[in-house]
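Treating backbone geometry as a discrete language has practical consequences that deserve illustration. No coordinates are needed to read the tokens, only the vocabulary itself. For completeness, the protein is quoted in full, as a sequence line and a line of structure tokens:
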Amino acid sequence: MNVISYSEARHTIIHRRDGDDAVVMSLESYNNLMENLHLMSSPNNIRHINESIAQIKAGQTEEKGLIDE
């Protein structure tokens, strides 16, 4: 068995004979990827994100403080 560090493994594609290649990533990276896929699967979310980006670029934002309890 070959032993390599995580740093080496994350830049490696694991090739399988059947063509089903694999990659290694942290659980945090995987969870972030899944969340982004979920958010981007909704046309309403995409529209809202694009509108928000346009507002930021146009300087149409305002700073709000935290709510005091």
Notes: The first strand starts at residue 13 and ends at 14. Residues 55 and 61 are 7 Å apart (CA to CA). Residues 6-57 form one domain.
